[in-house]
Amino acid sequence: MREKKIRTLSLICFIVCLLIWVPNLFFQIASPLWLLTFLLAPVGIALGVVVKNYWLIAVNTLMLFSFFIFMALGYFVNSKT
């Protein structure tokens, strides 16, 4: 039962990190909430490590580096125009 709760918390960290990007990416609202990804994603990674769920570790790691990924994609798209 404890493992299931930890897995759920790690998944919640991932989902919240995804939802944090919604105002910036889809509504073009400059929201500083994306900074929370630097706090929530490591928590999700740590919880994923505890339950040894590699999928949760991978997606939370992706969310940890999401700012840098979006920044690189933005530069790439703008360099082509």
Automatic annotation (TrEMBL):
Keywords: Membrane, Transmembrane, Transmembrane helix. The keyword Membrane applies. The keyword Transmembrane applies. The chain crosses the membrane at residues 6-26, 33-51, 57-77. It comes from the Bacteria. This is Uncharacterized protein. The lineage of its organism: Bacteria, Bacillati, Bacillota, Bacilli, Bacillales.
